[in-house]
Amino acid sequence: MQLAAAQLAAHLHKGLKPLYTLHGDEPLLIQEAADAIRAVARAQGYTERTVFTVAGAHFDWSAVLASGGEMSLFGDRQLVEVRIPSGKPGKEGSAALQQLAELASRNDSVLTLVLLPRLDGATLKGAWFGALDSFGTTLRVDPVERHALPQWIAQRLAQQQQRV
Q1: Number of separate domains in the chain
Q2: Which residue range is the domain that position 78 belongs to?
Q3: Can you give the pTM of this predicted structure?
Q4: Which of 19, 25, 95, 155 has the smallest count of CB within 10 Å of its CB?
């Protein structure tokens, strides 16, 4: 399910989905969206958090799959966060992400969060991204356009009870 960045707060108010994929060209906005998801998850009892950063072609995907498919050691709900800075998981990673997406749809005690940079058209049409999108919620975070920047700044200041 595709979701616009502006719709995230309303979406989270309705409840969490088991899988979120965030991708885009604006690191601050991706970080804030991930923080919002983490805050709601924490409030709903997801107290354990495991973070995996995919670095290089020899990344061990079995640890990611194991954490996404197992129950928590202490019975708490857990958040599994997978960061792929290159946006290219490789052949083994592609298969693992497809499997992780299926696992996330069946295990409600694990919330999976996948963080990616801006993706090209070919990657968006790949099987692994298609699986993440079909089994979870995908949030594309675009940079704020120049003409919308004054309004964006005013909204952020208003959220902090400030104005210009």
Answers
A1: 1
A2: 2-159
A3: 0.89
A4: 155
